[in-house]
Design a protein that fits this description.
InterPro entries: 6-hairpin_glycosidase_sf. With about 450 residues, the protein is of the alpha+beta class. The chain is built from eight helices and 17 strands. It folds into two domains: about 1-195 and about 205-220, no CATH class; about 235-440, no CATH class.
Length: about 450
């Protein structure tokens, strides 16, 4: 699905078990998926259904103008050993707001229910045949949304209505026993505002699957070039590491101002940034040499201090806190930990000095909160922790670990080789209640 703010554009295949039958959804519960390799997120999906074996290759290739194009290669095999079979396959392009595509079960993590209704209302597009078995769809502005290339002797049409579905591409094919045919879809990067020249598009040749895979691999080879290369003897451990690295890079979305939003994954929007959740993979990327990428996310985190409403719960004041998205008390401390970690791995003194005022403000925000709670004679084992975010369900999960992250910050910064860290000197002497003990144990279990 393509994203632009809360707006979504989705594309998908559908099938009919018999020729002339209405489109139906594939049974996603039985789909098997695998990457080309953990370092190369080119996706292969496989699903036998209705007597046909379906294999889909999904990948992205770069465009000369800096954009990208998604390629989908659907291979269809007739599984019947003796009988030729005819059936219809469909392809829909839809658009709607994010919340209309999903029913949210838990806003924090992966589970969600997909809503079918948006997929029944395809975009009203103009169908233009460019060859006997190829063509494109364009919108009312004349901008190409996608183009397709199907196997010889495929009957292609654009149907205003097919069963419950509106505005959908239909591919009718007959396959001999054991025969395999292919449908190739190219989706243009139009949601970001790119304009496609119709004349050049119509004259472009289609990429075969092997060439597209090679071009897709180059994106990731370039992204990994010059970075740390970790190799271990155990194949399973190597696969886990490589997958984590690729997933982390895919979760970071650059913004127009040059900053970047580090996504959490799953259901969540890129705008739903959880500082504590993403700190793990951002620190990993720091150590692998992706400091420039992490720096863009820190630019975003630092921007959340201006006008921050602070976390939910009993706070002295929101002034100085960082508030990306979630209400957890730990968010400010988590950002401080990320800032300290970036400096420790890059030794970027100029950057540190530039942002020292914001860093000091955040430290002061936590100091005031912990001082106030210490004055209220809270239990010793909670000394140094800010109060729970809210007295309700999950309040302890949203309890504060801010001091834990601050501990990392104030231990690191005074030893920063004169990088204008003198302003943080008082924080290195245990002035924040709990002292070094705050590094080893905190109240609260998840935030």
């Amino acid at each position: 699905m393509a994203r632009k703010g809360q707006f979504r554009r989705g594309h998908g295949f559908f099938l009919s078990a018999t020729a002339g039958g209405p489109p139906q959804f594939f049974d996603f519960r039985n789909v098997e998926q695998a990457y080309l390799s953990p370092k190369e997120p080119i996706l292969f999906s496989s699903l036998p259904q209705s007597g046909f074996d379906h294999r889909l290759t999904s990948l992205t290739v770069p465009e000369p103008d800096g954009g990208a194009r998604v390629h989908l290669y659907l291979s269809i095999a007739n599984l019947h050993p003796t009988r030729a079979r005819s059936a219809d396959w469909y392809f829909a392009s839809v658009e709607d707001m994010h919340e209309r595509f999903y029913v949210d079960i838990n806003e924090d993590y992966v589970p969600y229910d997909q809503v079918l209704a948006p997929w029944l209302k395809g975009m009203a597009l103009e169908h233009l045949a460019t060859g006997s078995f190829s063509g494109l769809l364009r919108d009312g502005r004349g901008v190409a949304i996608l183009r397709y290339d199907a196997a010889p002797r495929t009957n292609v049409s654009y149907e205003a209505q097919a069963g419950e579905f509106a505005n959908i591409l239909q591919f009718n094919m007959e396959l001999a026993p054991g025969e395999t045919k292919k449908i190739h879809i190219e989706i243009f990067d139009t949601v970001t505002g790119r304009t496609n020249e119709m004349a050049s598009i119509q004259n472009e040749s289609f990429l075969d699957e092997a060439t597209a895979i090679e071009q897709g691999r180059q994106i990731w080879n370039l992204a990994l070039m010059g970075k740390a290369n970790i190799q271990v003897p155990e194949p399973m451990i190597q696969d886990i590491f490589d997958t984590a690295q690729a997933n982390a890079l895919q979760l970071i979305a650059e913004r127009a101002d040059g900053s970047a939003l580090p996504g959490q994954g799953g259901f969540n929007e890129y705008t739903a940034v959880y500082s504590w959740e993403v700190s793990g993979y951002l620190k990993m990327l720091n150590r692998l040499g992706y400091g420039d990428t992490v720096k863009k996310t820190l630019q975003y985190f630092l921007s959340t201090q201006a006008g921050s409403k602070g976390p939910a719960g009993d706070i002295v004041s929101p002034d100085g806190s960082f508030r990306a998205h979630i209400f957890w008390m730990c968010e400010t401390g988590a950002v401080l930990g990320l800032l300290a970690d970036y400096y420790l791995t890059t030794k970027d003194r100029s950057w540190f000095g530039e942002h020292l005022p914001a860093i000091v403000q955040a430290c002061e925000w936590i100091k005031k909160g912990t001082q106030r709670d210490q004055d209220r004679s809270r239990r010793r084992h909670e000394s140094g922790a800010l109060r729970p975010a809210a007295e309700r369900t999950r309040s302890r999960l949203a309890g504060s670990r801010a001091f834990l992250f601050l501990g990392r910050a104030y231990v690191a910064w005074p030893a920063s080789d004169g990088a204008r860290a003198e302003g943080l000197g008082l924080y290195g002497r245990g002035d924040l209640h709990g002292g070094s003990a705050g590094l080893s144990g905190m109240s609260g279990s998840g935030g």
